[in-house]
Design brief:
about 100 residues; alpha+beta; 4 helices
Length: about 100
């Protein structure tokens, strides 16, 4: 069981928090490799995956859904390396959120 505080929020408040997807560790890359005195500093490989979690209140959910019902699909297009839970999210939003 994870001790990550965001994962705890997701379990405790499922209507307020939602796990959207994961970026696997092998898909995470450093934007720039640092240099010091013209010597490239080697960086370790990523060993943990990156979880994507949304935390929102009722007003935020209503506003987001009213502005763009396809927000999650568009977000998924912007982060193609992530493994998304789009089907589960769509069903969850439809079943659990009352607008």
């Amino acid at each position: 069981m994870t001790t990550n505080p965001y994962a705890s929020l997701d379990r405790k408040y499922p209507l307020m928090c939602k796990f959207l997807g994961t970026i696997p560790s092998n898909q995470l890359h450093y934007e720039k490799v640092p240099f010091w005195n013209n010597i490239q500093i080697p960086l370790s490989k990523h060993t943990w995956e990156l979880k994507i979690i949304a935390i929102w209140n009722t007003k935020g959910r209503v506003c987001l859904n009213a502005h763009n019902k396809d927000w999650l699909k568009e977000l998924a297009k912007e982060i193609p390396e992530a493994k998304w839970e789009i089907q589960n999210i769509h069903q969850s939003l439809s079943n659990n959120l009352r607008f």
